Amino acid sequence: MHIQSSSRMDTYVLSRLLVLVLCIYSLKTAVHGAGECGRNPPDREAIKLAPCAMAAQDKSAKVSATCCVRIRQMGKNPKCLCAVMLSSTARNSGAKPEISMTIPKRCNIADRPIGYKCGAYSLP
């Protein structure tokens, strides 16, 4: 009888540990999914804007159609677009935030978040 009781106790402890591990994993996933760009950090999302590199460095550079498509997609989430434009990946590529902020306007995106505060900058 003592063996059965011990076996039940082991099963109970293991089931509680499994629940605890699943809870911790869920919290970790929820926290990582709560960023400006969902589960992807802004530095990873910035890679998608590689076609905008020249336009983000030079206000007179032509903005490519591919860049505008990607800006339009990312601009549906202004927090993400802002975080990407200010990311270390963007800065390391030579992008200038004050110029990057002009790209949605230069792409003639009518429903862009005009006036959206992005750090020290506002989207025109």
Written overview of the protein:
This protein is mainly alpha-helical and 124 residues long. It contains seven helices and two strands. The chain has helices at 2-32, 42-46, 65-74, 78-85, 88-92, 97-100, 103-106; strands at 117-118, 121-122. It has a two-stranded antiparallel sheet. Strand 1 (117-118) and strand 2 (121-122) form a beta hairpin. It is elongated and about 75 Å long. The relative contact order is 0.13. Residues 1-33 form the signal peptide. It comes from Brassica campestris. Residues 45-114 form the Bifunctional inhibitor/plant lipid transfer protein/seed storage helical domain. GO terms for molecular function: fatty acid binding.
Give the structure's gist in a few sentences.
With 124 residues, the chain is mostly helical. Helices cover 54% and strands 3% of the residues.
What attributes characterize this protein structure?
single chain, 124 residues, mainly alpha, Hydrophobic Seed Protein, signal, Bifun_inhib/LTP/seed_sf, Bifunctional inhibitor/plant lipid transfer protein/seed storage helical domain-containing protein, fatty acid binding, Bifunc_inhib/LTP/seed_store
Topology:
Layout (H helix, E strand, L loop, with lengths): L1 H31 L9 H5 L18 H10 L3 H8 L2 H5 L4 H4 L2 H4 L10 E2 L2 E2 L2
Antiparallel strand pairs: 1-2
Low-confidence stretches: 11-32
User: Structural class, from helix and strand content?
Assistant: mainly alpha
Level-1 CATH class name of one domain: Mainly Alpha
Query: Biggest β-sheet, characterized?
Result: 2 strands, antiparallel
Shape: elongated
Order of helices and strands: HHHHHHHEE
